[in-house]
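Issue: ligand-bound run for nicotinamide-adenine-dinucleotide - logging full I/O for the record.

Environment: standard queue, default settings, no custom constraints.

Inputs:
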Amino acid sequence: STGLMAGKKGLIMGLANDKSIAWGIAQALAAQGAELAFSYQGDALKKRVEPLAAQLGTPMLFDCDVGSDESLDALFAGLKAQWDTIDFVVHAIGFSDKNELRGRYVDTSRANFRLTMDISVYSFTAVAQRASQMMPNGGSILTLTYYGAEQVMPHYNVMGPAKAALENSVKYLAEDLGRDGIRVNAISAGPIKTLASSGIGDFRYILRWNELNSPLRRNVTQEEVGKAALYLLSDLGSGTTGENLHVDAGYHVVGMKAIDAPDI
Ligand code: NAD
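Outputs:
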């Protein structure tokens, strides 16, 4: 095949449905000739994910709960059985108890703090550990983060500290794996309506606020995140690692957010 990803093989984790950021990235990579495998969480999502993977001609689908080392080991053993090496991995996974994505951060429970950190932060390191073993010729590893790591956003709560820890993990992993030619980066996406973001209190308000206050005066799409991922995962990004690339219509540079959202 031809294209920026011709001859490259990789894993996309976190596909839930056609609104998933993982889907926007998968489409951008497939259009440039990448060979893809997907992992999804649990049987319930299988019937959603199967037809999507089929659209991209990808038979490689793995059920994986990133909260379990055994499940991650099985995923990478399954991949290894098909492919000797891989070139990239996309980690588009996050989780926190919906009941704590409203109200105040100060009320976070220990149990949900632990679970949020485990699924949304540690899993990326656990994935990098295993993926890097399959990247003898170098590679590119990508995760997804949000501005709530840098500044306080309404209702993002414990996901804020979790994304801050994730962004810092990107830097440590970039240093550890850089000598092996493996790049590690994050995309900080602006708010996009997905299954995960729908769990955040007043998410519609956040979308509207971003639309009115970002320099581009609009929200971003899954496709735009896909294009940025293509840059970081292809040879175009060969000089970039440890980076947090904002794909947020510029929202993160605006200090004084002046325009309020009218009745929504
Ligand atoms: P999504 O619901 O489509 O994807 C989240 C995925 O995480 C799902 O596929 C879900 O199955 C998976 N997941 C949760 N717990 C898991 C576990 N234990 N094991 C394996 N998979 C698990 O939503 P999305 O918005 O596409 O989220 C993808 C990533 O993008 C997340 O890290 C999210 O925080 C990040 N992000 C989203 C936005 C946004 O506004 N949507 C903005 C910035 C960053």
